[in-house]
Specification:
single chain; globular; mainly alpha
Protein backbone atom coordinates (compact mmCIF):
# COMPACT_ATOMS: atom_id res chain seq x y z
CA UNK A 1 0.00 0.00 0.00
CA UNK A 2 2.83 2.41 0.85
CA UNK A 3 4.48 1.75 -2.51
CA UNK A 4 1.23 2.66 -4.28
CA UNK A 5 0.83 5.97 -2.44
CA UNK A 6 4.52 6.81 -2.75
CA UNK A 7 4.21 6.36 -6.51
CA UNK A 8 1.26 8.79 -6.53
CA UNK A 9 3.05 11.43 -4.42
CA UNK A 10 4.50 13.52 -7.30
CA UNK A 11 1.15 13.60 -9.10
CA UNK A 12 -0.76 14.44 -5.92
CA UNK A 13 1.73 17.18 -4.99
CA UNK A 14 1.40 18.82 -8.39
CA UNK A 15 -2.39 18.43 -8.50
CA UNK A 16 -2.64 19.99 -5.02
CA UNK A 17 -0.48 22.97 -6.07
CA UNK A 18 -2.39 23.51 -9.31
CA UNK A 19 -5.86 23.26 -7.75
CA UNK A 20 -5.02 25.45 -4.74
CA UNK A 21 -3.37 28.03 -7.02
CA UNK A 22 -6.32 28.10 -9.42
CA UNK A 23 -8.93 28.38 -6.66
CA UNK A 24 -6.91 31.12 -4.96
CA UNK A 25 -6.65 33.00 -8.25
CA UNK A 26 -10.45 32.96 -8.60
CA UNK A 27 -10.78 34.77 -5.28
CA UNK A 28 -8.48 37.49 -6.58
CA UNK A 29 -10.27 37.87 -9.91
CA UNK A 30 -13.57 38.13 -8.03
CA UNK A 31 -12.15 41.14 -6.16
CA UNK A 32 -10.39 42.75 -9.12
CA UNK A 33 -12.82 42.13 -11.97
CA UNK A 34 -16.08 41.05 -10.31
CA UNK A 35 -15.82 37.57 -11.82
CA UNK A 36 -17.47 34.52 -10.26
CA UNK A 37 -20.12 36.65 -8.55
CA UNK A 38 -17.62 38.97 -6.86
CA UNK A 39 -17.55 42.73 -6.57
CA UNK A 40 -14.93 45.00 -8.12
CA UNK A 41 -12.76 46.55 -5.40
CA UNK A 42 -10.58 49.65 -5.83
CA UNK A 43 -6.96 48.69 -6.49
CA UNK A 44 -5.70 50.95 -3.70
CA UNK A 45 -7.95 49.43 -1.02
CA UNK A 46 -6.90 46.54 1.20
CA UNK A 47 -9.31 44.30 -0.73
CA UNK A 48 -7.80 45.49 -4.01
CA UNK A 49 -4.30 44.72 -2.78
CA UNK A 50 -5.52 41.31 -1.60
CA UNK A 51 -7.07 40.78 -5.03
CA UNK A 52 -3.76 41.57 -6.74
CA UNK A 53 -1.87 39.16 -4.46
CA UNK A 54 -4.48 36.45 -4.92
CA UNK A 55 -4.79 36.81 -8.70
CA UNK A 56 -1.09 36.89 -9.49
CA UNK A 57 -0.01 34.70 -6.57
CA UNK A 58 -2.57 32.04 -7.41
CA UNK A 59 -1.62 32.10 -11.09
CA UNK A 60 2.11 31.78 -10.30
CA UNK A 61 1.46 28.94 -7.85
CA UNK A 62 -0.74 27.07 -10.33
CA UNK A 63 1.95 27.43 -13.00
CA UNK A 64 4.70 26.53 -10.56
CA UNK A 65 6.75 29.69 -11.13
CA UNK A 66 8.56 31.28 -8.15
CA UNK A 67 6.43 28.86 -6.19
CA UNK A 68 8.10 28.82 -2.79
CA UNK A 69 8.49 32.58 -2.22
CA UNK A 70 5.06 33.36 -3.67
CA UNK A 71 3.36 30.66 -1.59
CA UNK A 72 5.10 31.96 1.53
CA UNK A 73 3.96 35.55 0.86
CA UNK A 74 0.32 34.62 0.19
CA UNK A 75 0.35 32.33 3.23
CA UNK A 76 1.18 35.45 5.23
CA UNK A 77 -1.56 37.36 3.45
CA UNK A 78 -4.07 34.73 4.55
CA UNK A 79 -2.80 34.85 8.13
CA UNK A 80 -3.33 38.61 8.08
CA UNK A 81 -6.81 38.15 6.59
CA UNK A 82 -7.70 35.66 9.31
CA UNK A 83 -6.55 37.82 12.23
CA UNK A 84 -7.25 41.29 10.81
CA UNK A 85 -10.59 40.67 9.15
CA UNK A 86 -12.21 37.56 10.56
CA UNK A 87 -11.00 37.26 14.14
CA UNK A 88 -10.95 40.99 14.83
CA UNK A 89 -14.43 41.67 13.46
CA UNK A 90 -16.05 38.66 15.13
CA UNK A 91 -14.11 39.03 18.37
CA UNK A 92 -13.22 35.34 18.32
CA UNK A 93 -10.32 33.19 17.17
CA UNK A 94 -12.61 30.20 16.53
CA UNK A 95 -12.97 29.80 12.75
CA UNK A 96 -16.54 28.48 12.96
CA UNK A 97 -17.52 31.68 14.80
CA UNK A 98 -15.49 34.22 12.78
CA UNK A 99 -16.07 32.46 9.41
CA UNK A 100 -12.31 32.24 8.89
CA UNK A 101 -12.09 28.61 7.80
CA UNK A 102 -11.13 29.48 4.23
CA UNK A 103 -8.32 31.92 5.09
CA UNK A 104 -6.95 29.44 7.65
CA UNK A 105 -7.10 26.62 5.13
CA UNK A 106 -5.41 28.72 2.42
CA UNK A 107 -2.78 29.92 4.90
CA UNK A 108 -1.68 26.41 5.78
CA UNK A 109 -2.12 25.06 2.24
CA UNK A 110 0.23 27.73 0.93
CA UNK A 111 2.65 27.11 3.78
CA UNK A 112 2.67 23.42 2.83
CA UNK A 113 3.33 24.31 -0.82
CA UNK A 114 6.19 26.60 0.23
CA UNK A 115 7.71 23.81 2.34
CA UNK A 116 7.24 21.00 -0.24
CA UNK A 117 8.18 23.00 -3.30
CA UNK A 118 6.51 23.14 -6.69
CA UNK A 119 6.87 19.51 -7.71
CA UNK A 120 8.23 17.95 -10.88
CA UNK A 121 5.52 19.29 -13.21
CA UNK A 122 6.18 23.00 -12.79
CA UNK A 123 7.95 25.81 -14.56
CA UNK A 124 10.37 26.02 -11.62
CA UNK A 125 11.35 22.35 -12.11
CA UNK A 126 11.67 22.82 -15.87
CA UNK A 127 13.95 25.83 -15.37
CA UNK A 128 16.07 23.87 -12.88
CA UNK A 129 16.44 20.94 -15.30
CA UNK A 130 17.42 23.38 -18.03
CA UNK A 131 20.04 25.09 -15.81
CA UNK A 132 21.41 21.70 -14.75
CA UNK A 133 21.76 20.59 -18.39
CA UNK A 134 23.58 23.81 -19.28
CA UNK A 135 25.93 23.36 -16.31
CA UNK A 136 26.81 19.85 -17.48
CA UNK A 137 27.51 21.09 -21.01
CA UNK A 138 29.88 23.85 -19.88
Amino acid sequence: MNRFFNALRPYAQNAFRIVIGFLFMTHGTAKLFGWFGGHVMPFDSRFGIAGILETFGGTLIALGLFTRPVAFVVSGEMAVAFFWMHAAQAGSLWPWINRGELPALYCFSHLLIAAMGPGAFSIDAWLKRRRDRRAVLT
